[in-house]
Design brief:
The chain is α+β, with helices and mostly antiparallel strands and 210 residues long. The chain has helices at 11-23, 42-47, 67-77, 88-114, 135-156, 169-180, 193-202; strands at 3-6, 28-31, 55-57, 63-64. Helix content is 48%, strand content 6%. The protein is globular, with a radius of gyration of 17 Å.
Length: 210
Amino acid sequence: MITLYDCATAPSPRRARIFLAEKGVQHATVPIDLRSGEQMGEAFRQINPQCTVPALRTDEGTLLTDNAAIAAYLEARYPEPPLLGRTPQDKAAIASWQWRCEFEGLMAVADALRNSNPAMVNRALPGPVDYPQIPELAQRGLARVRQFFVTLDEQLAGRDFIAADQFSIADITAVVTVDFARVVRLKPDDSLPHLLRWRAAMAQRPSMAT
């Protein structure tokens, strides 16, 4: 059976959980306690030397250590429902917005958090290497998140989904980003009506409770 190395409180593994739930894929779960630093321990390093979650072990025994690989594998193995698009045009639109949601949104929140949280001194980036915090990146991260919310609101005007008129991986990453932004005290307000409408609709999907 597929095994997901997970952490219920972290945004990145939540993306994998939602993807698996939307595909209806049964899997085993191994919780990894990031708060205690379990991901840095020797036992988990033997599983994933990158010291990050999610990680997914396939039925074939291959270990996938990032969301991009996990999504690509699951989409190929379980093509229905498609979360990366059907047509070449839709695949391109979804890939573009997935990239924007990850780098303009999710990574901006991570910068704001990891470069300001006292518990993450010398842990400004995930993984096996320690990197010092840069306070200026935290401030820039907050500004980028605010702009990302505006970008999403504009994109969602007259749309039910972020790209290609279908629920996709871009919606998954955007939901996780919007929710994760609460850790840096940012959330959409009434000036972003399209974003609020879309997030309320997303909440009706059973996968979002994972």
